[in-house]
Amino acid sequence: MATTTVSLDKSLPRPRRRLPTWVYRLRRSPVGLIGAVIVTVVVVIAILAPTIAPLDPTKLNLGKRLLPPIWITGSDPTFLLGTDQLGRDMLSRLLWGSRISAVVGVAAVALSALIGVTLGLVSGFFGGWVDILISRALDSFMAIPFIVLALAVVSVLGGSLVNIIIVLGFTGWVSFARVVRGEVLTVRERDYVTAARSIGQRNRPILVRHILPNVIGSIIVLATLDVAVAIIAESSLSYLGLGVQPPTVTWGLMLADGRDHLATSWWLSTFPGLAISITVLGIIFLGDWLRDVLDPRLKK
After folding, report:
1. What is the CATH number of the domain that holds 207?
2. Is there a contact between 276 and 232 (Cβ–Cβ < 8 Å)?
3. Which residue range is the domain that position 253 belongs to?
4. Pick from 184, 253, 228, 220: which is nearest to 38 by CA?
5. pLDDT exceeds 60 at position 5
């Protein structure tokens, strides 16, 4: 029996691989694209800070104190963004400060989400006295201003990186619990949840397989926005002297160091202030785009 060999023309163009849907949506959203670029740059800087920082951020050089940025008369080319009141390189301190902001923002929000999502799922799903107890706890935390509660706890525990993460994590769970509880109250009445109960599934599989996936979009959006809140809170506590303590470099500490030199050395507070503002703005832009993408009510 004769066999026929079919030769394929290798010169024919191969079909192009389609990009993920979120890439097309990001390209069509200038705000989301700007936010994604800012967040990506900050994350890369935080990871590579030990490599790309030109100098040691904690090294003192009193002979070079309060040098202006390179574009101002009297500057030193070695210090592109000038030096602070102790002669430390501003550029290196800005790069290293991004690491603390990234770590505190992500770690604190992860802890808040773990607590808040768990309590929100339990409260919304089971209802009854469990819901009443958790709801009263939510009301109690909401009655106390966030920054006042954080100040009180930090003043007792002391300022350190771990303590700041714990404080921000245990004081920021309220927003997660409220949002998740409200979502679960709606989702638990859906037909697929009723069907899962009718075939004898237990509560835990229903929560994990049917309810949590349907509220994960809101959790992601809220977590993104809360990272910005955590960065501002850490900077505020550090500015007040209750956050991460020297010699660790943070943007909040840099702001605090420059407040006595605003009239003569504006760059000491301006550069860390801009770093905080741009980072928070980028996170907010990214969170707003995520909300548009993940919220089915906003899809066209």
Report:
1. 1.10.3720.10
2. yes
3. 28-56+67-298
4. 228
5. no
